[in-house]
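Example 4.3 (complexes with small molecules)
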Amino acid sequence: MKKILLSAAVSAIVLAPLGASAVSFKKPEDAIKYRQSTFTVMATHFGDLGAMVKGDKPFDAKAAQANADIVMTLSTLPWTGFGPGTEGGKAKPAIWKEMDKVKAGANDLQKATAELNKAAGTGNLENIKKAFAATQQTCKSCHDSYKDK
Ligand code: HEC
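Answer. The structure with heme C bound is encoded below.
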């Protein structure tokens, strides 16, 4: 089962490469607003799933799947908002010196959210719990390095 989940996750990444959603912004503030908004919406749906994982909210397989779908899609979006000259917000300036590492972190997130989506597809809360924790770890490791509190 684990192997099937992994290969499905890998193919999902091929379909959603980093920067697939590249758009251009008129001014840096627009890019900052864009990335913060996409993070906010992603986090809202991730948080709703988290409430089910923690038992704060009854588990609803359909709602969990809907949240996981949105999180997976949204995890591809914020990165286009980190173009050259868009320093600001709560993003640490180191991002623009270490873009390779940031992209690797974004990739880890996308892999994790693809797996989370597959786990949601099983309708099994235990599978979702594991994939949720793995995803949360990718959020944390990037925030620890690249996001101001
Ligand atoms: C590869 C790096 C990276 C990953 C992975 C990542 N984030 Fe972030 N996140 C950032 C950065 C950088 C900012 C600050 C953006 C800014 O203020 O311009 C941020 C900001 C946010 C914000 C605040 C938005 C605002 O309006 O201030 C939320 C909420 C958030 N992230 C949630 C998440 C969640 C949930 C995950 C995982 C599911 C996640 N992030 C994964 C880098 C990352």
